[in-house]
Amino acid sequence: MAHTPQPPDAGGGATTEHGPADPGPPGPGENAPEGHEPGRAGALGPPSWMALAFLLPALLFLGAYMLYPIGFSVYRSLWDAPGTTFVGLDNYVRMFTNPPTFVALRNNVVWVVVAPVVVTVAGLVFAVLTERIRWATAFKLVVFMPMAVSFLASGVIFRLVYEQDPERGLANAVITTVQDTVAPAGDFPDASPREGSGVEPADGGYRLAAQVSPGGEPALVPLVGIAADDLPASAEPAAEPGAAADGAVTGTVWLDFTPGGGGAEGAVDPEERGLPGVGVRLVDDGGATAATTETADDGTFSFEGVADGAYTVELDPRDFTEPYGGVTWLGPTLVTPAIIGAYLWVWAGFAMVLIAAGLSAIPRDALEAARVDGATEWQVFRRVTVPLLSPVLMVVFVTLMIYVLKIFDLVFVIAPGSVQADANVLAVEMWRVAFGANDQGMGSALAVFLLVLVVPAMVFQIRRFRRENS
Amino acid sequence: MTEHAWRLRGAAVAAAGALLAAGCAPGGGGAPNGGDLQGVQLKVAAKWTGVEQDNFVEVLSGFEEQTGATVEYEPTGEDTGAYLGPKIEAGEPPDVALLPQPGLLEEYAAQDALVPLSGDAAAALEENYTGYWSDLGSVDGEAYGILLKAAHKSIIWYRPEAFDAAGVQPPKTWDDMVGTTASTLSDAGETPFAMCGASGWTLTDWFENVYLSQAGPEKYDRLTAHEIPWTDPSVVDALETMAEVWGEGDYMAGGTDGAVQTDFPTCVTQVYGQQEAAMVYEADFVAASAAEAGATVGETAQAFPFPAVGDAAPVVVGGDIAVAMSENEGTQELLAYLASAEAQTTWAGLGGYLSANSQVQPDAYADDFTRQLSQTVLDAGEDVRYDMSDQVPSQFGATEGRGMWAVLQDFLRDPGDPEATAQDLEDAAQEAY
Lengths: 470, 433
Fold this sequence. Notes:
The complex is a heterodimer.
Chain A: H1 8-18, H2 36-43, H3 48-76, H4 90-97, H5 99-130, H6 136-144, H7 151-161, H8 170-182, E1 192-193, E2 199-202, E3 205-208, E4 219-224, E5 249-255, E6 279-284, E7 289-294, E8 300-303, E9 311-315, H9 335-360, H10 364-372, H11 377-405, H12 409-414, H13 420-423, H14 426-436, H15 440-469
Parallel strand pairs in A: 4-5
Antiparallel strand pairs in A: 1-4, 2-3, 3-9, 5-8, 6-7, 6-9
Helix pairs in contact in A: 1-11, 3-15, 4-15, 5-9, 5-11, 6-9, 9-11, 10-11, 11-15, 14-15
Chain B: H1 3-28, E1 41-46, H2 50-67, E2 70-75, H3 80-89, E3 96-99, H4 102-110, H5 119-128, H6 131-136, E4 138-139, E5 142-143, E6 145-152, E7 155-158, H7 160-166, H8 174-187, E8 191-194, H9 200-215, H10 217-224, H11 233-246, H12 255-261, H13 264-272, E9 277-281, H14 286-292, E10 302-305, E11 316-324, H15 331-339, H16 341-350, H17 368-380, E12 385-386, H18 388-391, H19 394-397, H20 403-413, H21 418-432
Parallel strand pairs in B: 1-2, 1-3, 8-9, 11-12
Antiparallel strand pairs in B: 3-11, 4-5, 6-11, 7-9, 7-10
Helix pairs in contact in B: 2-16, 5-15, 9-10, 9-11, 9-20, 11-21, 13-14, 20-21
Family (chain B): Belongs to the bacterial solute-binding protein 1 family.
Organism (chain B): Nocardiopsis suaedae
Protein name (chain B): ABC transporter substrate-binding protein
């Protein structure tokens, strides 16, 4: 296909030298006056059969590998799945009334609108910035390096980067590390109340439904759901709360699960361990905190010198905060933006190198003149650099657009099965229909549709080449 | 159109092959015991690689020795349909193919891409397999396929260490599993299940087991054939039952979000490698992934039968079906050999193989675990069922991001409305049937 980018400095250089107004010397081809042509060709040029003979290998190659497949795809798209019944345009009608194709089409639009813009802008920023730094070559090399990695491998890398589990997914590891520094997780995030023990959840912490009073029954707070391995090393076997003296409230917070099963629910059994360092609050009827303390290593706590009355025992929510799980990158909503992020990683280097080459071809005196006239750096960039670069930016943009339209590998590899439908794009849909559902009629129809979408971008490219070469 | 051209080309290739074969035969010497298929070359395509491939090739070599034919094995890659489709289109299919889904068998039969079983092959099927299995490989009364290698899909794998720490035993019924086993594990700080939500086929397997046990084999068959709609109350009941596990984010490693993103071998690693969960539901082939994650099958990785939801515990079997795709000489003989108890007994001894052939004795198997599995298949007799999602049209039952896979993934994400899910399934089924 014709999307191999032309080195932009050749194009830029040509325009500045000749200028569009300058007709230049007439080419040897169709522009030459009619009268000369036949005689010259007859006398000096090779006979036309020889020209044909030289062209033949290329023609055969193009015919066999380009024209015939395109023609056959168009033809095949008019037949049904097994290829036995002619169905006319039925495949095309089905294509546009089929919800999965519609999702694919919508995603393709998102891709075409967002990805080339994002990548071109990123390339422009990198190119302009690397002009000003030392070690620019090293920096460019690093940014360009992902181009050397195959799309499939990039997909595998980013599938891991976006993994939900912060232990494995880089993106979530970064986010959760920041989040945990700002708001650390509690010691016992997995804890839940022992069912039927009168412990109930309250604002992220837990509270005892029954109220306690000084000198009364001790408060028992059994919790479960914590793996024995997750207990802090300091945790000791849970102790029964001591009998409360006058003006005192005592109790125990412990892991009410005997390893290996057994043990009575809601009672402190010999092999069960206390939960150390849990914040305990005594809240009076008005909702005011009367006293706070922390549990000892055996899970016991006690409040001394408490005024008479009824109190609620509450456990501090901070000890039970769940660690932040990170962003669901590969969920139905974020999957397409996440894959576009991976695309940016791969292609930013390409855009940067082309734009940097264009940048070096800009006449320095134009920039100098603007600076001398008192323009700020931003104004120089905005009003001089970008307009002078626009032909190169266009090349990068259109090339990316063609690549984006046929995006396949990244989507196929990165999106987990459960969101493949949400991340679907036309090329993936085409493959799936043609070789998964084995409907090569519909698959060909999708391929033809994809071709039709690419044609405008290709016409644009070809026209541009022509203009530059004339 | 060019169909004629392709056919002609296929014929030309076949003719060339025959010439070649004829040319080879006299000087070739062939097999020591001089079989009747000297010089015949056959191609067999299946998705097996690695050890599975080596074992199958060894089984094939038995045929080569008996007959003098040469059998070439072609691995198809994971997606057998994507491999065979273009080959059929080009008129050059392998002689024998192992199809992972009866749905594919029906599709190819409708395209006239299959050759019916005849002679010894038809007789072997009749003799060695129960009626259910021969029906499974038949389209419109014509027998095409033989279930060659079965996968037992009604077992739940667990980590005995986690069960010991929580003091629980493998449950016998679904209610025990959800009520006692899972909740006790959860109390002990062990996440009960690892889910493989990103691999849609594992979710359809959950459904099939629950449905087969709760609604019975007869309804299972009718639902498979789409004789009853997916909005049938029995489907809604099954979904409600599944929600007892799927609705509890705390019962799944990584919560609901994590479960939907975890693909198949990863969920096994969560149980046996990272030890983040206590149980994972999938077929006997989990053994390979568990061993890769560092567990010893039979010791640190054990399995119990899928517990009974209704009256009887379900036995769902999947597997690869051998079909003839050409009329070349030797094709039917090869199928007859593969269907024989002799070939399958050899294979059973090599390991990693479960047979649906009623003539293969349990003591043919190399290990206790497979022997027990084969016993459950024999015991369930006529109530064994083949994986439903593989019998329905592949667009509905076996395509990523479509049909059952996608709807059940949505149900795992939010199991709040079983009736709406049943309606979604019915809509997807309508489109595919």
